[in-house]
């Protein structure tokens, strides 16, 4: 039974050192699986970037070994990078029903559905793949149908929690995180390795229970005299159910606006995850019946103040069917993601200017995080009693603090291991080995361009965005070196030309000066001199440094 | 005594509807004063903008009436726009000693000091100007020497709180907010008008007392084995004093890095506001003695993750004298301003990677806001019992919520008045009159350019920053319409040209197509066609839409 060749290598490709882009390879001697394949939303300094995905070279270079992709749940930071991977690897994708329904929709939209086989899994069943036997444990999260993985591996029992919180009193039966199942899997000995969600390690205590949210909703619905508008993360089916339940209880019809919400509600309804009463709870915005204000609630997209979302359009008067007026109540039932706080608070202020009352996270209990707080993470550690602990899903400080918690819970300090993306570790029958790092990266996706925008392009965008640009064009006779055209000067994002055209006239004079001072210089030299002369000028006059593109054409 | 011509007009020029840029004109029949003259730091969408200032046209157009500028305290959002105003108006500037010292430094640096007369004021003394008698009340805030204004006006008593919190147990004697002085001024009748700081109306209860911060500092200093690095707002002299006191108590020398900190500490020392022990508490970083790690503390700039600040340079290894290593403790003793959260948390993660322990607001009580929480605002309302209430210093939702609090505290609803910038209101001997709005604006300052960057330039910057740009140059013979040069294509911030030059080659072909399909079109028409053809192409191929500048030169 004891085989020296047995091993399990864990290779984090994303999500260890950042929030998002979760992706991890787990390999045994019989092959490998990929746990999650997520994207990350760009940070503010990622100018113009749509999404960020992990670098897949490592996976693609040994794709014959890859046997399966296993998805823990359907959030974008766990499934969003699939479209970029499935072009290169053709293995079954396993996940819960709802998770796969979201994947199916995503891949169909991009014409990639024929590339993949989607195989549903569920708690109570196991999956044998790549020398591993995988158990699925239901976990509570801010999306339904989330799964944690219990893996019987050649070197012992492994748990990967995925994203989770522990809801001791779940609203939807059987979909709380059942710690007993983890405990049973861990057995008397405890697991060999626990990998656990670090997102909320900095939050003390226990996360808010969803029942508290329902309580707040009910009191708001009870008081509201006008229309109610709710915005939330569009995949948060449980929260949507709570709004529907309140609507029913307080006799309001429900309208929905925003594409992603429509899609997700449809999917959830079809799979039976949304309990919609008989009778017409929903109303069609295009054929909206005339209803008193206190008989409707609208669920709309736009919780992050996205400019094209339904709520943003409502606020600026650009929504075809909906508007906000005095006496309405708007509920932002979601977290403000740090990069979006400015946009969201601007929206909130404008809602107040329109006369609405706005309820948001900071002021009312109308949102609960889907990630375990510190005491919940402790409960997971105590239930599974790991020999080795690797914190996952978090920025570096989260990983540090989560590993400290593991030590407090009995993991020996040298077995509480902080890995970052690209650092593989191998569990041997006895002992652990760190492997050579593999190449990882954050690949920037801009439109259809994947990886064509890198650091140098971002740096140019930074300057262009902050300072604007100026083009200077001059056509000269290649024989006589006489000026045939120009200098012409064009600017964008620099100064308001209509009022400050004298600056551009000065720039033209400077270009002529350069040319006259050194009439026999080469084109390259002239271009360099024009650039430095104009930069000096604008720095002195305006303390600005736009990108300057001198173009000298010889004909 | 009763004079029908008496009046007092309040004209907010900034700070009512935004946080920052505080500036208000108060006029009687005998002239006007300006209360504060602040700037606002740009939001994320203000690309490349350095600061934002109020529009001063209203003040300048009637500058003969302006008798004084009164400053409540020395923060940038109250004094920062002075350099742009003092060029146009020449009236005395009144403020506390420390406030004026900061103004003096600022104006000297810009060569504007000879334009102004600075006159110190202090609690207990009054100032008669513009038909008003102004009393000064000391208030507690996150900068020392803050003042609220009590104004005996022709139409009754007015209070403008400036920025304040109520510290019932101030660390520095006599510089808590003494509500009794406000109460005494208000008298039996209460004041005619209260204008009060709305910044923290959304915070329930009382703000944290500075003694709590000292307590945390002491426990951190007690435990720390390595070096301690503290970053904080550089004008927060009281907090700096607390660090100095801890340094003394725990036998650490103090090094300072960062220009603004050095300046402010010097000013405070010279005015006697910093209690520095005899002996050498401070060490000079340029001649740093060799000291054990547990014998030093460094106060450095960079609490907002500013890239050129001392702390950012330390983190990326670019600081000449200082570095961070295993076992050091870094204290971010300040609030993370929402727009800076990404930058600050990136810095925190990198500090952890270097092995430091980092204490910040979210996790430890090492920062206290300088603005009154809801219960403190209530205490101010109850102490002054205003007939009319105008919330100041806040975004729109803050003003709404503060006015509701005033109503709860006994102000009649129609006398709790929400004004925004540019909406003047006149208090008459009996009654109130709304005046015609005056022109206000947020003037964007970019380098030395004031107001030359407006909406259209910002829009270009947005596109340039998100999508980059492409220039297409073509020189044609004005007689034969033959192409003499080009098409040449240059891009910036668009794609990484080295790897994606084939896209630019395709673009050149498209330009030739346009030219050949319509060889006799005018230059303008050709340019338009080239632009739309290239936009279509890049949208289709890349889903991107860079700024395209076609330049056709005829020679």
From TrEMBL, chains A, B:
Residue positions binding Zn(2+) 1: 73, 75, 77, 141, 163, 393
Instruction: Look up the signal peptide feature and give its range.
Output: none
Q: What is its EC number?
A: 3.1.-.-
Q: Report one GO cellular component.
A: cytoplasm
Q: Which residues bind substrate?
A: 234-236, 367-371
Record's cofactor remark: Binds 1 Ca(2+) cation per subunit. Seen in 1 crystal structure, it is not clear if it is physiologically important.
Chief site of localization: cytoplasm
Question: NCBIfam families, from UniProt?
Answer: MG423
Q: Name one GO molecular function term.
A: RNA endonuclease activity
- Record protein name field: Ribonuclease J
KW Cytoplasm (keyword) present: yes
- Residues annotated as catalytic: 197 (proton donor), 371 (proton acceptor)
Q: What does this protein do?
A: An RNase that has 5'-3' exonuclease and possibly endonuclease activity. Involved in maturation of rRNA and in some organisms also mRNA maturation and/or decay.
Query: Where do the annotations place Zn(2+) 2 binding?
Result: 78
Binding-site list for Ca(2+): 48, 50, 446
Which species does the entry assign this protein to? Desulfovibrio litoralis DSM 11393
Tell me one GO biological process term: rRNA processing
Q: Where in the cell is it found?
A: Cytoplasm
What residue stretches are annotated with the Metallo-beta-lactamase domain? 20-217
Its taxonomic path starts at: Bacteria, Pseudomonadati, Thermodesulfobacteriota, Desulfovibrionia, Desulfovibrionales
């Amino acid at each position: 039974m004891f085989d020296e060749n047995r091993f399990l290598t864990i290779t984090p490709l994303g999500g260890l050192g950042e929030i998002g882009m979760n992706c991890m390879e787990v390999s045994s001697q019989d092959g490998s699986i990929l746990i999650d394949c997520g994207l990350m939303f760009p940070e503010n300094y990622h100018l113009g970037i749509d999404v960020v995905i992990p670098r897949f070279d490592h996976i693609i270079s040994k794709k014959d070994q890859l046997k399966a992709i296993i998805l823990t749940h359907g959030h974008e930071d766990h499934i969003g990078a699939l479209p970029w991977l499935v072009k290169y690897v053709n293995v079954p994708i396993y996940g819960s029903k709802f998770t796969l329904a979201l994947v199916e929709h995503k891949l169909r939209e991009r014409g990639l559905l024929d590339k993949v086989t989607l195989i549903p899994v569920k708690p109570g069943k196991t999956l044998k793949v790549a020398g591993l036997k995988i158990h699925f444990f239901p976990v509570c999260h801010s999306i339904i149908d989330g799964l944690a993985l219990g893996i019987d591996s050649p070197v012992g029992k492994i748990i990967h929690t995925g994203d989770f919180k522990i809801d001791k009193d779940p609203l939807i039966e059987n979909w709380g995180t059942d710690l007993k199942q983890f405990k049973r899997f861990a057995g008397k000995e405890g697991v060999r390795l626990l990998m656990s969600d670090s997102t909320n390690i900095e939050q003390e205590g226990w996360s808010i229970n969803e029942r508290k949210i329902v309580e707040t909703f009910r009191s708001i619905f009870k008081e509201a005299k006008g229309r109610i508008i709710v915005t939330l993360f569009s995949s948060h089916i449980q929260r949507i159910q709570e709004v529907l339940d309140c609507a029913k209880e307080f006799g309001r019809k429900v309208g929905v606006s925003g594409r992603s919400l429509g899609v997700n509600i449809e999917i959830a309804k079809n799979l039976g995850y949304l309990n919609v009463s008989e009778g017409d709870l929903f109303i069609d915005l295009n054929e909206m019946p005339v209803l008193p204000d206190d008989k409707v609630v609208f669920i709309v997209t736009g919780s992050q103040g996205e400019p094209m979302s339904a709520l943003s359009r409502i606020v600026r008067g650009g929504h075809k069917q909906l508007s906000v007026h005095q006496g309405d109540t708007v509920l932002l039932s979601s977290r403000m993601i740090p990069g979006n706080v400015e946009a969201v608070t601007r929206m909130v202020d404008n809602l107040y200017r329109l006369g609405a009352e706005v309820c948001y996270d900071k002021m009312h209990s109308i949102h609960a995080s889907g990630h375990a707080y510190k005491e919940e993470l402790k409960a997971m550690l105590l239930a599974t009693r790991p020999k080795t602990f690797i914190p996952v899903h978090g920025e570096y400080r989260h990983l540090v603090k989560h590993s400290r918690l593991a030590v407090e819970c009995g993991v020996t300090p040298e077995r509480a291991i902080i890995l970052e993306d690209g650092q593989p570790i191998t569990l041997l029958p006895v002992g652990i080995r760190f492997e050579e790092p593999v190449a990882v990266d954050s690949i920037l996706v801009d439109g259809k361009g994947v990886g064509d925008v890198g650091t140098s392009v971002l740096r140019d965008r930074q300057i262009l965005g902050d300072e604007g640009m100026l083009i200077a064009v001059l056509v000269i006779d290649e024989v006589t070196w006489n000026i045939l055209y120009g200098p012409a000067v064009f600017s964008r994002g620099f100064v308001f030309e209509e009022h400050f055209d004298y600056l551009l006239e000065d720039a033209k004079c400077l270009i002529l000066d350069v040319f006259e001072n050194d009439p026999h210089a080469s084109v390259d030299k002239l271009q360099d001199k024009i650039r430095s002369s104009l930069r000096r000028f604008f720095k002195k006059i305006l303390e600005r440094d736009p990108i300057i593109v001198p173009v000298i054409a010889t004909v």
